[in-house]
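EI: anyone free to look at a 95-residue chain?
SC: sure, send it
EI:
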Amino acid sequence: MKGVNVTRTDYVEIYHNIFEKHFNGITYDQLNKLEDKSIPTVGIHRSGITLGEMGIWAGALLRELGFMPVITPVSNEEIAQRGINIAPPQSFVSL
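SC: here you go
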């Protein structure tokens, strides 16, 4: 059988590691360790829309403007369930 005992590369984890390395801010986990509490914080959603070069660029811009960018944690079951719970119901009308 092909693929048995083959280690697969987790490209999502690699991407998040690279993003966090170059993000000019802090992760949500580090928020309580922020030494200067007087710096205003701005949350940046960790989603496909805001990540990539735009997330890194936004972090650098916000930092330059005097804010502390904070990236949200990686999604897990709890975060997904919270999103499902607050999402508005959608209804479709067929024509």
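EI: The chain has three helices and three strands.
SC: 👍
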